[in-house]
Specification:
The protein has about 325 residues and is mostly beta strands. It contains 1 helix and 24 strands.
């Protein structure tokens, strides 16, 4: 199609070049990791066992799956954290052409950062068949729209739903005339649905200090990210003259099965925690990482003839090491 995009899916090392050391970090002899465009906090997938044993570790086949980059990347080392496997002995990857899978990452950045992308505005067309004169189609156009909120609703055994909220500057009257070139808009290329029943992986709430598990048994999860946008009003201008972006506020709400009181104790102790999940489908995948969160308002539910549940509000806090509130890592290919 005209809007086709060629994307990086990862890198494949030469035979025996990519290894895992005794600390569970990735090391290499030839491959220069600093040339791959990777970032602190980015998620990567280690190994590709579905494409043949040569692309994954053979001595320790359990060394595969999702991990996140921790700290500075050097030419021949990528420090890792929150691995989906248990760190054990080193593996030299002898004879193996190990694959590392990654594509890109989005995260919050300060205005002064060289990689900061100024918040763009967009336009929306609303088509209403039958709403016009004599049953014709009416079109309404919103302009100068800023993305105010994103809500991901992750239910048990269902489809992940996304609700977007916009604050705009203009809104046209409905009418039969369609905007020039509106019918030339590109169709989305990535249209796969995320299902929580089979495609939700690595849903974890961990203590930040030692990565011990607080819960991996959850019944539902909602992610809300708000920009708290308000219209900018000024003298001499009818309507909004611009948009004001307020406090950036990511929030999680989860319902978990109460297998122990560790979550309640963590909430009471104001423990630093971390939360992540990986969604996959035929188009690839996306991993969400909240590197520093706090548990708030633990609420237990005791219902007859079923499991005890505990609900928590989990606001994201700025990680003091990275300045990160959350990071979203995209994968063009997931085994």
């Amino acid at each position: 199609p005209a809007n086709a995009i060629l994307r990086v899916a990862g890198v494949q090392g030469a035979a025996g070049d990519i290894q895992i050391d005794g600390n569970g970090d990735l090391i290499s002899t030839v491959l220069d990791f600093t040339t791959l465009g990777l970032n602190d906090g980015q998620g990567i997938l280690v190994g590709d066992p579905t494409s043949g044993a040569a692309f994954a570790f053979a001595v320790h086949p359990e060394y595969q799956g999702l991990a996140y980059i921790k700290g500075p990347i050097t030419a021949n080392k990528i420090p890792l954290k929150m691995r989906s496997w248990t760190v054990g002995a080193a593996d030299t990857g002898a004879g193996q052409t190990i694959r590392l899978l990654f594509t890109c990452m989005a995260m919050n950045l300060p205005l002064t950062d060289a990689n900061y992308l100024k918040a763009p505005t967009s336009a929306i067309e609303v088509s209403e068949p039958g709403a016009g004169a004599a049953g014709a189609v009416d079109y309404t156009y919103g302009g100068g729209l800023g993305l105010d909120s994103i809500e991901l609703d992750i239910p048990v055994e269902g489809k992940v739903g996304v609700t977007l909220g916009f604050v705009g500057m203009t809104m046209s009257d409905p009418g039969a005339a369609r905007a020039v070139n509106a019918d030339q808009a590109y169709e989305p290329l990535l249209a796969g649905i995320f299902s929580t029943a089979a495609k939700l992986k690595n849903l974890r709430l961990l203590k930040q200090t030692d990565e011990s598990s607080l819960s991996a048994d959850m019944n539902s999860c909602k992610v809300t990210i708000k920009n708290n946008i308000t219209p900018r009003k000024q003298l001499g201008t009818s309507g909004a003259a611009g948009l004001l972006y307020g406090e950036y506020a990511p929030m999680l709400n989860i319902d978990a099965y109460l297998l122990s009181n560790d979550m309640v104790r963590a909430a009471n102790a104001n423990t630093d925690c971390t939360f992540d999940f990986l969604l996959t489908n035929a188009d690839g995948g996306v991993a969400w990482l909240f590197p520093m969160v706090k548990l708030r308002k633990p609420k237990k539910t005791y219902a007859a003839h079923t499991s005890v549940m505990v609900a928590n509000e989990i606001p994201a806090n700025r990680d003091p090491t990275t300045g990160m509130l959350y990071a979203m890592s995209q994968f063009a290919y997931v085994p």
